[in-house]
Design goal:
Helix content is 34%, strand content 20%. By secondary structure, it is of the alpha+beta class. The strands form three sheets. It has a six-stranded mixed β-sheet. The protein has a five-stranded mixed β-sheet with strand order 9-10-11-12-13. The chain has a two-stranded antiparallel sheet with strand order 6-7. Strand 1 and strand 2 form a beta hairpin. Helix 2 crosses helix 7. It starts with a strand and ends in a 6-residue tail after the last strand. 21% of the residues are buried. About 3% of the residues have low confidence.
Length: 314
């Protein structure tokens, strides 16, 4: 039996931080979510996003009720680490830095041993800039304030190619000099001081104060409609840009266009103005979709559907 996926809750919003879990949700359970994180190496960060994956409340309710996922209070799951755990974490970080620097030096030595290798003017310029930055960093490595005049002296390293960071003798860390990337793991699952407490049901999560959805008739209607469409095999995404609650796809949104824009009607006796029907029909036709009116009955827990399309006359 597969382990339930952990949905980490912060400020009543659920996130997925593990890439493998995101793959399982999308390929096995038709749950897409929205990537909400940044990708540091991309300039257009408002277009191309990364981890974590933020889920709609309806997706969270469906996953928890079906036993596919469990809710975790992410704030309380992070505890104060012990000194030994921090020491191991720092050692792993230093090993990663040393490996990066060693690979960089190996690459540079290979390039230096092949002087006849053609290099573009841009590559030569970048190499010269790197060398100048390293020389400047080494020149600034020695402190300009004498030790006797410095009220907060830091420990120094005997090796000038290393830098010392920290706030005292017990916390000093000797960091190798050179260019390297600071790798920050997306998920906290591998941290020794991360101890999540899973809430296996919505009732338990509500009692713990980390989840309250659904709490109104409209929210129950949205969850009921979402579940019914999901059980029919559809994929759902946010439909606010098209005047509805959901975009309804016949398959993975990466491969298919949506066929419907779904609007949720919370009860059979809920008011629906004729102007709204006309607007939905015109907007759906303008975006090459049919508008789906989804009526929820909270007593029978049944969904009724009515599709609206703009038709020509004569």
């Amino acid at each position: 039996m597969t382990q339930p996926i952990l949905l980490r809750v912060s400020n009543f919003k659920a996130y997925v931080w593990d890439v493998d879990d995101i793959n399982i949700l999308r390929s096995h359970h038709h749950i897409c979510g929205i990537l909400a994180g940044t990708l540091p190496h991309l300039s257009s960060q408002n277009i191309f996003l990364g981890l974590p994956l933020q889920l709609m409340p309806e997706e969270v309710v469906l996953l928890v009720e079906n036993g596919i996922a469990m809710l975790v209070d992410d704030l309380s799951a992070h505890r104060a680490p012990s000194e030994s755990a921090l020491k191991l974490w720092n050692e792993a970080r230093l090993n990663d830095v040393r490996q990066q620097i060693a690979l960089t030096e190996e690459k540079e030595s290979i390039e230096a041993s092949n002087p006849d290798r053609a290099m573009s003017e841009n590559a030569k310029r970048k190499r010269k800039e790197r060398e100048e930055r390293r020389a400047h960093a080494k020149a600034n490595a020695t402190p300009s304030v004498p030790a006797e005049n410095n009220p907060f002296p830091h420990p120094t390293s005997e090796n000038p190619s290393q830098a010392v960071v920290g706030e005292g003798p017990n916390s000093a860390i000797v960091m190798p000099s050179g260019s390297y990337t600071v790798n920050i793991p997306a998920s906290s699952s591998k941290l020794e001081w991360y101890a999540p407490h899973s809430n296996a049901s919505l009732t338990v999560a509500r009692e713990a104060g980390i989840w309250v959805y659904p709490s109104t008739l409209q929210e129950r209607a949205r969850c009921g409609v979402f579940r019914d469409l999901w059980e029919k095999g559809y994929y759902m995404g946010g439909g606010i840009k098209f005047g509805g609650e959901y975009l309804v796809y016949p398959g993975d949104p990466l491969r298919y266009h949506s066929h419907f824009v779904a609007s949720v009607i919370e009860a059979p006796d809920a008011a629906l103005r004729p102007m709204e029907i006309v607007a939905h029909g015109r907007l759906g036709t303008g975006t090459k979709k049919a508008h789906l009116l989804c009526e929820w009955n909270d007593e029978t827990r049944v969904v009724s559907y009515l599709s609206v399309e703009w038709a020509g006359f004569g």
